[in-house]
Amino acid sequence: MHQLRCEARTIAFVPTMGYLHEGHLSLMRLGREQADILVVSIYVNPAQFAPGEDFEAYPRDMQRDLDLATSVGTDIVFTPDDDMMYAEGFQTYVHPERLGKGLCGISRPIFFRGVATVVTKLFNIVRPDIAIFGEKDYQQLVIIRRLVADFNFGIEIVAGPTVREADGLAMSSRNAYLHDDQRRAALSLSQALQQSQALVNSGERDAGKIIAAATRHITSFDQTTVDYIVIVDPETLEDLTLVDRPARMALAVKVGSTRLIDNMVLGN
Ligand code: PAF
Predict the structure, then answer these.
(1) Mutational test site, ligand 1, from 115, 174, 259, max ligand atoms within 8 Å of CB
(2) Which residues of the chain, if any, have pLDDT below 70?
(3) Which residues pair with 239 in a beta bridge?
(4) Alpha helix ranges (H) inside the chain
(5) Strand, helix or coil at 252?
(6) Ligand 1: distance of its center to the CA of 213 in Å?
(7) What is the pLDDT of residue 118?
(8) Which one of 55, 122, 188, 229 is separated from 215 by 20 to 30 angstroms, measured CA to CA?
(9) Are 10 and 35 in contact (CB under 8 A)?
(10) Which CATH class is domain 9-160?
């Protein structure tokens, strides 16, 4: 990587936890278009999983991932192991404050500390000019933008739009956990978001009413448990009571034991 930088070639970076799907590949294609060299990392980061979460079960298929990453023109696939990322004695973490406390931070209190720490390490190792993150993990994207500004990384963060299955389900490696009936229930997330967009477009401004309607829709499906449904300012992630300016609706729902997240823009 040092050699490439000396040759003044630009580097785009897509960090992933593997089990690649079309959502990841779309981020890689964006990176491919915007820089001379495309680096992808594949690393299931233990620091962002709490005890009892799905670290061990997280789907992995390195050979398939390497083939897919290569198929979209990735130049370098970086596959560190735990000894490299968290060598004995490791004890320094990057801890997002306010932005990491709400939404997913409530039920996953160490998650964003793990993400910010590993992304900081990956940025320092890869030294990209551009890094691409998916809008599907919207809170993560906002936190990474903050991290880059706060730590003067000088990296341009590019957001890739959420890629969806034909029926609207946001692509996620965790969709692999869903049984057929749960797959149907999982559709309630994107449906609720689309219905919320339609409500706003027809003039509804009361965030409480929009959230109540979305909650009713999702909980009408078997095996769904709402973790949160919020309408927030797109940058501060503070709750909005009125949708009278651009807003993000974000939600996390357990379908069976699989926790899924999704989000959409509301308003213009
Ligand atoms: O979004 C992900 O896959 C992960 O949170 C990331 C950014 C690769 C850090 O482990």
Answers:
(1) 115
(2) 1-2, 4
(3) 232
(4) 2-6, 22-34, 62-71, 82-85, 104-107, 111-126, 138-150, 180-201, 207-219
(5) strand
(6) 31
(7) 99
(8) 55
(9) yes
(10) alpha beta
With a CB cutoff of 8 Å and minimum separation 6, the contacts of 87 are none
Query: Which token pair is 249?
Result: 């609706």
Is 24 tagged catalytic? yes
Q: Hey, what amino acid is at 90? A: F
- Inter-CA distances, 74 with 26, 32, 77, 105, 268, Å: 12, 7, 7, 32, 35
Superfamily for the 175-266 domain: Pantoate-beta-alanine ligase, C-terminal domain (3.30.1300.10)
Decide: 262 in ligand 1 pocket, CB within 6 A: no
Kindly report the protein residue whose alpha carbon is nearest to atom 8 of ligand 1. Answer: 16
Question: Where are the domains positioned within the chain?
Answer: 9-160, 175-266
Closest CA to 171 of 68, 40, 27, 2: 27
Rounded distance, CA 49 to CA 110, Å? 7
Q: Write down the pLDDT at residue 86.
A: 98
pTM over 0.90, yes/no = yes
